[in-house]
Amino acid sequence: MFSFKKSEVERVKPVLEKQFKATEDAQFRTLSLENDQEIELVYIQTVIDNANIHEQFFKPFFEINDVTRYESYLKSLPNFKEFKDEQDTVKEMLHGSVVIFIKDQVYIVGFIHQENSQVLDASVETTILGPQKALSENIYTNLNLIRHRYHKKSLRVEKAPDIGSKSNIQVCILYDEKEAEPKIVDQVKKRLDQANRPIVQSAGELHRALTNRKRRMFPTLLVTERPDRIAYNLSQGKVIIMIEGIPFVLIGPTVFYDFMSSMEDFYQPYWVSKFLIILRYVGLFISLFLPSAYVGIISYNPEVLRIQLAFSIAGSRMPVPYPSYLEVLFMLIMMEMLVEASIRLPKTIGPTATTVGGLILGQAATDAGLVSNIMIIIVAAVAISNFIIPINEMSFAMRVMKYLLLLITTLSGLIGLVLGTVGLIYYLVYLDSFGKPYLKLFTSRQKQHI
Amino acid sequence: MSRYFYYLVILNMLANVVALVPRILIEERVNGVVTSLMIAIIITLIYCLVYTNSMLKFPGQGQPEIIKKYTPKWFASGYLFFIGILYFLGTWFVLLSFIDITKRFINPEMPALYISVLFLSIICLGALMKTEKTLYALEIIMIISLPLITGIFLKAFLNEHISWDAIRIVFTHTIEPPSNTSIGAGAYSLVGFYFISIYNRVLKNRVEGMGVWRIVLIGIAGTINIFTSLLVPIGMNGIDGAENYIYPWFSTADALRMEFGFIERVLYIFLLLYIGISMISATITCHIAMEHVRSVLPEIKWKEVKIVPVMMAILFSLATILGYFFLSQVQVYELAKMFFSLLLFAGAFSCAVLFYAVRRSKQK
Amino acid sequence: MKNLCRLSGLFVFVMVLLTGCGFKDIDKRAFVVGIGIDKTEQNQEGYEVTLKVAFPSSGSEELGDQFELLSSKGSTIAEAIQLIKAKVSNELDFGHMKVIVLGEKVLSKDIGKTMDWFTRRRDIQQIALITIGKPDAKTILSIEPKGERLPSNKLFMFFDEAGTESPYVTTKFLYNLRRDLEERGIDGYLPIVQAEKDNFSITTMSVFKQGVDPLHLTKKETKLFNMLKKGYDKESIKVNAKDEFFMLAVDSLNTEYQIKQKQNQKISIEVIVDISGVIEESKVELKEGKLDKYNKLAEKVLTKDINKLLAKFQETKMDPVGFGLRYRATRSGTENEKWKAWKSLYPEAGINVRVNADITGTGIIE
């Protein structure tokens, strides 16, 4: 229990009045009993649970009819918080707390109400056999979901300082105390402290704020919407960063394989899941290397191909007036545009756009002699195999990466492709995710031996 | 032993069986090369036993720290600098031959300067990474290329057109005096264990010493490797025809074909795989060289960046480019012969120094 | 960071300036699928080089007729090709050259010199197929067999074991021929492609070594040689004795040979052939119980034939089987000494052929 000098309460009140008096939805209510005992409630109508405030605060006050007893009633409320200082009070109010002045004391009771707390269907990472529900936009609902999947007493929920000097978003970190390495937890907290951005609206944005590298190509933290993935990662000793109002969480430290794994892998029979993983890596290689391999082989070393194939490619390229790399670029960019367009378009016209673009454009482009038939096959293969990568962020990164490989191959042929690949491996290996090596084969959960 | 140690040893075996070593061995093919190789393998295995066991006595420490601690300062600086230069030379030979191979077999019209800049930029950036990171990159490249290369080697041996009589002729010259150059060249493919001098810093070994059976295992792998390197080109190109090739292995790979493979000509798969292997090999030796030389130079910082390794990388790149333009292929070949023979003695010296350090550490 | 960006931008720019060479699209290249080397009539020294350049067709339905024959004369092959280059608009690409046809008359020249150009160029595949063209290489290249989708496809399907498997066809790759030419103790041999009206046939072969006139083998000898050399087991052997006549379909065939040296001087070549198979065709009635007799018969016929063939090689001092190499591989001493010894020993060597036939049945009827 804190006890304050008179001046302390007096200091809080003017601050609140100054800040919120002009705001329409801020409420300053004074309630008084017959015996001149008075309390004052301050809250913002629009962030608290307005429907229940009467039931929870006003009615008991008159029923109890005694200020001291009302005080202990307040302390028994589930979201009771102790007063720290003026700044904290302001922040709490903004996050949906009711501030109550009773005599000289200041009490804060969380009474948040959020509209969008229903649990959403998993839409970004869908599985066939796994749980079908994702997270909600409410941090407490999400905690509830996770707690129900991970019943362990060592699960720690810690509140991190709010993120964003303007948006003041509430952030929580979750970890299993027994599994997570304290060093990594400390590092996550330190990074969260250092993160400064005026507005943070999404997990990706927080991710950008958390990595000290300004320009980043590959995701080093995993963004997910699946509670089962969160529970699994908790058991793996990862740290989860939850953000208010976003149905996604950040998981760190993550390594390259996490981005190539789908929760489905755990729900399928062993060999099936191994097959799926292999398929995914094949897809990754195709989407990365096929366009550049095409340019490298067609324009520098056609003798690599079998003679029959070389001739049919040469034949289909006959009417194409441009060098191979322009042909590839043209088709790839058209394909990227189709993909982008179908994301941005309303769901009802999305498929139409892709059909029109994909079928008609592809057919017309070959007929017009702008690109070769083989090229259409390659572009389609690249596009399809790119979607195989289960985590969106990684598939976006790989989409960009293939252009870099294409550039170096165009400049230097197949040798450039090999060197570019080695360079890409070096870069991935060089990356860190909260002090963990990003790309390393055979990472086992046991104590890491080099 | 950590698995990364084996990767290092195997990497060095693979990286050196195609460029300069086989040519030297083939030149000596009727002059007791089998005996030479046997001697080379035994010598290097003894070195390996002594050197690796000595290094393992200092867990978590690299050669520079050990030498600096137990030997006089003047000696330590001179010795480490010398070793660093040797590693740079090793990298230099790999690079020179692969730049030449690229130019000869893949892109004859591409300017050599461009190829060397491409190679060097990747290698130098890789060598500037942290020590353990180079190991992760090594592992990935090995996992990708090792099965394919083993497959190609096997395919070469199983080829119906290989001339076993030509290979048998090599063995009829077993009882002949060995030559220094072929011992040197044979030993060079096995010296991967020296890489532990720096990598001991990050290798977390679960064992105290290097057991005999591990040595035998490495010896068997090395023997298979070096004999493959020597015999397959002879089997494919003939005992009398093998000597004319500048890069016998690439001409041999061109003689292989995969009737039912996606790519018919094995040469291209082989070339591209080997470019990858030589890249990582050059990166690792360059990294070791830098760590050695850097340990004797003062640390200079410029805007928070340690400048010494970067300067070394630039100097090394210049040396490589100049080397390529001012030395002919024949000169490089002759130099390599000398270098390989020199390494035999340097290896003995190295083992002796380290052995001395172990003695000193026990006295203390 | 900004500086670094600019620096890398500059770097890429410099790279772009440096490069640009070697970039040549596949449709700007003229693929040479076959090369023919002939001797010129007037000039003893010169060659007539014929290139078969394929033109890819844009529609996959069109067939054949998509090549051009370009030929030119020069004192060396490289010179002739320089002249041909002046006749085509696209860059000549030898990367896909799969067939090398040597005119019959070229063989009278120093074959080593002729082959030098092929082995020196990096862009010529070592796995190119090599053959002798009769009457000359140009004729062979100009033949357009029916139903050919790719120029020369038929020709290399002949040699490629993925296509037909005939007991008369000897596959010889470029590296193989070069090895035989360089190697002391084995002589080169090549299949002969005979031009016919709209097609070609391969039934004979020729054995040669540097500086000596080539030795042509007959059909039967060719078949026998392939059997010995390759262990070719998809063939039938005709066994013809007084009143018995049958064809033996070979299932497995294994040839071994040894060079034995008696009392320091004379050597003898021991050839052991193990053969097993079933009877494929017969003109007289065969009895299951008399298989032993048929074995003996087959052995006798084969022994005679092989002996005759090897004696022919010995007479002409040819050694396509590689007895000399085997001799070198089983003796010690310096290579020059061994070779000298072999050269004096071979003409006098005795040849012992032993055939072990094992007829496992008479087919599905008696």
Search tags:
heterotrimer; A: 450 residues; alpha+beta; 5-stranded antiparallel β-sheet; 51% helix; elongated; disordered C terminus; B: 364 residues; mainly alpha; Amino acid/polyamine transporter I; two-stranded antiparallel ribbon; 15 helices; 2 strands; 1% strand; globular; Spore_GerAB (chain B); transport (chain B); Spore germination protein (chain B); transmembrane (chain B); membrane (chain B)
Class computed from helices, strands and strand pairing of chain B: mainly alpha
Low-confidence stretches of chain A: 445-450
Largest sheet properties of chain B: 2 strands, antiparallel
Order of helices and strands of chain A: HEEHHEHEEHEEHHEHEEHHHHHHHHEE
Radius of gyration of chain A: 29 Å
Domain tally of chain B: 1
User: What multimeric state do the chains show?
Assistant: heterotrimer
Task: Spell out the helices and strands of chain B N to C.
Answer: HHHHHHHHHHHHHEEHH
Written overview of the protein:
The complex is a heterotrimer of chains A (450), B (364) and C (366). Chain A is α+β, with helices and mostly antiparallel strands and 450 residues long. Chain A is built from 16 helices and twelve strands. Chain A has helices at residues 6-20, 53-64, 67-76, 86-94, 139-149, 182-194, 203-210, 227-235, 256-260, 264-267, 270-299, 307-317, 324-344, 350-367, 373-388, 392-430, and strands spanning 26-32, 38-44, 80-81, 97-102, 105-110, 155-163, 169-176, 222-224, 239-243, 249-252, 432-433, 436-437. In chain A, a hairpin with a 5-residue loop joins strand 9 (239-243) and strand 10 (249-252). Chain B contains 15 helices and two strands. The longest helix of chain B is centred in the last third of the chain and has 35 residues, at 329-363. Chain B is globular and about 60 Å long. The two termini of chain B are 27 Å apart. Chain C contains ten helices and 13 strands. Classes of the chains: A alpha+beta (450), B mainly alpha (364), C alpha/beta (366). Chains B and C meet through helix 6 and helix 8 of B and helix 1, helix 6 and helix 9 of C.
